[in-house]
UniProtKB/TrEMBL annotation:
GO terms for molecular function: hydroxymethylglutaryl-CoA reductase (NADPH) activity. This is 3-hydroxy-3-methylglutaryl coenzyme A reductase. NCBIfam families: HMG_CoA_R_NADP (TIGR00533). Belongs to the HMG-CoA reductase family. Pathway: Metabolic intermediate biosynthesis; (R)-mevalonate biosynthesis; (R)-mevalonate from acetyl-CoA: step 3/3.
Length: 402
């Protein structure tokens, strides 16, 4: 059946919009859906439908497909990074519609290059899922928590039976009145790991329910915390915790950022530390989310997790001959397998960074991705701090962003 006929059957109530793939190939189904939706809205979805991405290749990333949205992608760099896993110098792909962003990160990368490169380290790996259980009260909560502490190995065996890659590395119980939360943390290797951690935790919950009086209320009890601003992620970390730093000779700061090291350091204290504290912000940084979001879109990460990616602290210190700068991203959730990483353009962006697919050893590609994003975030911080210190922010955006 062709797209027009399928669209007609949907309009007649004979087929539901999300059932089209059962009656036609994925491309025809998407075309029919476009017709129905565009017709109802009295608009055109021709641009949305003009895609290089084959509908069949979107499987397991989308439902009710109508096409694609295009986001420009630029590159900043190359940015030399001496990471825990590897030393590399790559262009960082950034997908954004904010004029001046790539120029800014590019300038920051040029500063990092002139300084001889950034160091970066992943300091923690733990993708978390925290189910919530119902108990009678505090006495039962104590008993359940005690049982969980005594049976961590059993729970790890149950959880790890669902995956050949994931490892349970942390299990922290929290009791609140008649609720018990168990925050499971997994090393998910090269996967961002949210599906993996959720499936594994479901298995462990079955054991808790069969061996204790606790009753599962929800597999996610929001203490995980996924896709919501939360202090627990900023403090304990989630996904990968990663730090990047650089020491920049004073003359490079003055030449490329048009500000003195002292001015940049003072600005960082007043803006990123004092200002953020006064605002009650979880992000003690200037624009880490800009780089995280643009890198996430380019490389097929889950965009909603930019929320956690913005949990970053930027520190800057004017030393005798150099400016020390660092960015610590507490909860950067990235993968090089799974999710949107397999889509062709996103996979190419991962290839540009040399981190496409599973790493050897497993986890090393996702570590390297986290480290280069952290170095990119550092570049963004340096350039924006420079622009603010030299009063160039508004003119830069007037020139490049409108
Ligand atoms: C715009 C610049 C970089 C000019 O900076 P400049 O030093 O005047 O420019 P330049 O022409 O001398 O070039 C210096 C370097 O910048 C890069 N560069 C320069 N132009 C380009 C370009 N067209 N395309 C790519 N790269 C570019 C490039 O690396 C170049 O080095 P070169 O390669 O020539 O040796 C600077 O003024 C700047 O970084 N401004 C800050 C802009 C910024 O950071 N915007 C980010 C978004 S702001 C936001 O969303 C968050 C905010 C601000 O609300 C958060 C908060 O509250 O703080
Ligand atoms: N379920 C949920 O609650 C949520 C899901 N998501 C979505 O979850 C998806 C991401 O989940 P995620 O678990 O990362 O991905 P996938 O569900 O795509 O699973 C990836 C699988 O790849 C396998 N794998 C192969 N090689 C490797 C390797 N080198 N390292 C790690 N795993 C490897 C693993 O299989 P095996 O385990 O068998 O070893 C792993 O489970 C995204 O689409 C995201 O949007 C986001 C938020 C919440």
């Amino acid at each position: 059946m062709n797209a027009a006929d399928l669209a007609e059957r949907v309009r007649e109530g004979d087929l539901r919009l999300h059932e089209l793939e059962s009656h036609a190939d994925p491309e025809t189904a998407a075309a029919a859906r476009r017709r129905v939706v565009a017709n109802e809205a009295g608009t055109s979805l021709d641009s949305v439908g003009e895609s290089h991405l084959a509908a069949a290749d979107t499987e397991s990333t989308i439902e009710n497909l109508v096409g694609t949205v295009e986001i420009p992608i630029g590159v900043a760099g190359p940015v030399p990074v001496a990471g825990g896993e590897r030393e590399a110098e790559h262009y960082l792909p950034l997908a954004t519609t904010e004029g001046a962003l790539v120029a800014s990160v590019n300038r920051g990368c040029s500063v990092i290059r002139a300084a001889g490169g950034a160091d970066a380290r992943v300091t923690k790996r733990a993708m978390t899922r925290a189910p919530v259980f119902r108990v009678d009260g505090v006495v039962e909560a104590e008993a359940v928590v005690g049982w969980v502490r005594d049976h961590e190995t059993d729970l790890a065996s149950a959880a790890e039976s669902t995956t050949s890659h994931g490892e349970l590395v942390d299990l922290t119980p929290y009791a609140v009145g008649d609720s018990v939360f168990l925050r499971f943390g997994y090393d998910t290797k090269d996967a961002m790991g949210m599906n993996m951690a959720t499936i594994a935790t479901r298995e462990a919950c079955d054991v808790v329910e069969s061996e204790t009086p606790a009753e599962l209320v929800a597999l996610s009890g929001n203490l995980c915390t996924d896709k919501k601003p939360a202090a627990i992620n900023a403090v304990e970390g989630r996904g990968r915790s990663v730090v990047a730093d650089v020491a920049i000779p004073n003359e490079v700061v003055e030449e490329r950022l048009h500000a003195t090291p002292e001015a940049v350091a003072e600005l960082n204290t007043r803006k990123n530390l004092v200002g953020s504290a006064k605002a009650g912000s979880l992000g003690f940084n200037a624009q880490a989310a800009n780089v995280v979001a643009a890198a996430f879109l380019a490389t097929g990460q889950d965009a909603a997790q930019v929320v956690e990616g913005s949990n970053a602290i930027t520190t800057v210190a004017a030393r005798e001959d150099e400016l020390y700068a660092s960015v610590s991203l507490a909860s950067l959730e990235v993968g090089t397998v799974g999710g949107g990483t397999k889509l062709p353009t996103q996979a190419e962006a991962l290839s540009l960074l040399g981190v496409r697919g599973g790493g050897s050893p497993p986890g090393s590609n996702a570590d390297a991705l986290a480290e280069v994003i952290a170095a990119g975030a550092l570049a963004g911080e340096l350039s924006l701090l420079g622009a603010l210190a030299s009063r160039h922010l508004s003119s830069a955006h007037a020139d490049l962003g409108r």
